Amino acid sequence: MDVSTAVAQRISTRAFKHDPLAQSEIRDWLTAAQRAPSGGNTQPWRVIVVTGKARDEIIAKAAGVLKDSPAGQPTDRPIYPKDLWEPHEGRRRRVGEMMYEALKIPRSDRAAKLAWFANNYRFFGAPVAVFIVIDERMGHGQWGHTGMYLQTLALLAEERGWGTCMQECWGIMRPMLKEHFGLGATEMVWCGMAVGIPDAEHPVNSLRAERADVDEIAVLKGF
Question: Which of 36, 65, 68, 222 could link 149 by a cystine bridge, Cβ 3.0 to 4.6 Å?
């Protein structure tokens, strides 16, 4: 598979088969991803990979958090900026509408929407989950490099026939995850990533988010 194909076909996979992924395959995948770009070669990322019982423990703890506080735990690093502006807010809302349309969940059915959203905290059935850890003392550049690492993981997964879903939703569980994983005083979980074999028959995986036309985001000068 070439890079262009991997980029074009990658989606946020939200339904997975239960087929396990071998530890040797995961190690090979992580080893390959270590070639991700890293300014100054700082490699500011760290990952925690869970499957089996370790994965189930996280799911159970997440359910406990949501039972006590449906909005999750307090965080000083929200997923989106407060009062997200246009065109970004419109794009965010539109992809949500597209997802619920694919699932045939009516816009007015709030209970069904919340029930579906809870699948985030079960990794959408994926057998493997990756948590991306970064040191809070890192600057904006290192956060950017860690994002490039995430993209590298996603594209290498495509090459292997796997699907991924980058899950910033785990940001509302940071205190729980920090304690559970025994992270260092200045470490935090940035986000999660669900990993596994996509369930191609599930309607949610037919969703392909719209992207802005290149003329909306690019200015080319001097050509």
Answer: 36
For residues 65 and 72, the answer to whether their CB atoms sit within 8 Å is yes
Residues in the chain: 223
pTM, to two decimals: 0.94
Domain assignment of residue 37, yes or no? yes
Residues 150-184: pLDDT tens digits? 999 999 999 999 999 999 999 999 999 999 999 99
Tokens describing residue 55: 């994965």
Alpha-carbon distances, residue 133 vs 168, 182, 210, 218 (angstroms): 12, 12, 29, 32
Q: What CATH number is attached to the domain comprising 153?
A: 3.40.109.10
94's enclosing H/E stretch is: helix 88-102
Q: Per residue in 65-95, pLDDT tens?
A: 999 888 899 888 889 999 999 999 999 999 9
